[in-house]
Design the sequence.
């Protein structure tokens, strides 16, 4: 997700479109990315965090969270 | 005097960058993204375009190309490096320059001739300019909004590392109207506008951009 202090014009554009469709009460929209990785058992949480911080997210402008889901 | 110009899959402006190098009376050496050898060049230009289709984030994949490892190593030893547009994004992703470039604040791709003010004439790429000079060069980008955390911005401003600033209106929401910045040692410069498209009044809005390519020759020859 873009960090809170980073302007998110895409999210703002979505927020402005909602009232035009009749959806009221949404005060803010922020747009981010989600990656789904299938990994084998050799990939531990530390490795996943490294993947997230070195390539998937740019930590200058984005925060990330890693969630492991069993198949 | 040899200036390398990198081509990634999706690079667009390598030919114009090479032409600008030749206009400045240096030899332009094509560098290929998959080749980790800089072929003895004295300086490197990372040109504009859409490397790797801007997949993931602009510049995010290009920074891991074999040639970039060599560029990062050479920059560490003081080799002049210039990143233009997508090249600027790549240098930020690679950590050679601080901050990042995000989607233009008005969401639209901006393509226009843009006035810039030169605010640092001591970098390897800007010694041919007069401090405060205003130059006209094309700007063409959709993700040109410069952002950095406040501490980084304060450092850039305090150390005079903002090289170019937009004048006559902020085209993309860049913080502090920043169009281009430099590394702490003044050897690496990145900017969103395109000086390589403004080297001859026949083919661009001015020849104001040529000074950058002449400056780097001075920097190498006088070193």
Sequence:
């Amino acid at each position: 997700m873009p960090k809170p202090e980073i302007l998110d014009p895409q999210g703002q554009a979505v927020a402005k479109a909602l009232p035009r469709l009749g959806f009221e009460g949404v005060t803010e929209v922020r747009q981010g990315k989600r990656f789904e990785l299938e990994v084998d058992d050799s990939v531990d949480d530390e490795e996943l965090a490294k993947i997230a911080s070195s390539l998937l997210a740019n930590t200058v402008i984005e925060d990330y969270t890693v969630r492991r889901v069993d198949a | 005097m040899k200036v390398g110009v990198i081509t990634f899959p999706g690079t667009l402006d390598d030919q114009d960058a090479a032409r600008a190098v030749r206009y400045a009376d240096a030899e332009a050496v094509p560098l290929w993204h998959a080749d980790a050898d800089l072929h003895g060049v004295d300086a490197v230009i990372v040109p504009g375009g859409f490397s790797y289709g801007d997949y993931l984030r602009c510049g995010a994949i290009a920074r891991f190309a074999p040639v970039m490892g060599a560029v990062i190593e050479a920059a560490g030893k003081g080799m002049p490096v210039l990143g233009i547009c997508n090249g600027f994004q790549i240098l930020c992703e690679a950590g050679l320059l601080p901050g990042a470039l995000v989607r233009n604040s008005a969401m639209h791709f901006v393509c226009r001739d843009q006035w810039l003010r030169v605010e640092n004439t001591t970098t390897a790429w800007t010694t041919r300019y007069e401090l405060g000079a205003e130059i006209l060069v094309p700007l063409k980008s959709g993700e040109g909004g410069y952002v950095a955390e406040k501490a980084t911005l304060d450092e850039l401003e305090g150390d005079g590392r903002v090289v170019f600033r937009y004048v006559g209106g902020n085209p993309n929401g860049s913080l502090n109207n920043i169009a281009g910045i430099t590394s702490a040692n003044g050897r690496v410069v990145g900017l969103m506008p395109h000086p390589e498209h403004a080297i001859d009044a026949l083919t661009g809005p001015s020849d104001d951009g040529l000074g950058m390519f002449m400056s780097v020759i001075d920097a190498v020859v006088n070193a």
User: Anything to note?
Assistant: Residues 9-20 of chain A form the longest helix (12 residues). Chain A touches chain B at residues 2, 5-7, 9-10, 13, 55-56, 58, 60-61 (CB under 8 Å). Residues 1 and 32 of chain A are 4 Å apart (CA to CA). The helical segments of chain A are 9-20, 45-56.
